[in-house]
Amino acid sequence: MIADALGNPLSFTMTRCEQADISQAKPVLESMATPQTVIADKAYDADALVVAIQQAGSGVVIPPRKHRLAPRTYDAQRYRARHLIENLFARLKQFRRLATRYDKLDEHFAAFVILASICVWMA
């Protein structure tokens, strides 16, 4: 999911349950206008993704994983803004239908994610 600086939803993609989220990072970033800064958690710490974001002209605020031999520096103050996306997920999970995944078809689930996102924007 992509959120703006205020924590409002902008875009999302769905993956299979066994697929890593980082596999969709590049396509999602390519589908939108170039962001000023990309803030993500440690799961998105991959050299190829960081280089792609920097080549697009965006800033990267992704903390390095513990096992890195040469940890990359990041702005810890700007990383604190990531709580906005976590708050967005918390607001979306207030809709029981999303939190428990009652819809079995991807199209129905995606439609309700859009409806819940509209409700978040209106709040």
Outline the structure in words:
With 123 residues, the chain is mainly alpha-helical. The protein has helices at 25-30, 47-55, 76-79, 83-92, 96-99, 106-122, and strands at 2-3, 9-11, 37-39, 59-61. It has one domain (2-122): Nucleotidyltransferase, domain 5, CATH 3.30.420. The longest helix is centred in the last third of the chain and has 17 residues, at 106-122.
CATH topology: Nucleotidyltransferase, domain 5
Give the overall form.
globular
Strands of the biggest beta sheet: in what spatial order? 1-2
The major sheet is characterized as: 2 strands, antiparallel
Poorly predicted runs are none
Tally of DSSP β-strands: 4
What is the averaged pLDDT score?
88
Radius of gyration: 15 Å
Number of domains: 1
The helix tally amounts to 6
Residue fraction in strands? 5-15%
CATH-level-2 architecture: 2-Layer Sandwich
Derived from helix and strand composition plus strand pairing, the structural class reads: mainly alpha
Determine and state the CATH class. Alpha Beta
- What is the terminal-to-terminal distance? 19 Å
Q: Helical percent range?
A: 40-55%
Order of helices and strands: EEHEHEHHHH
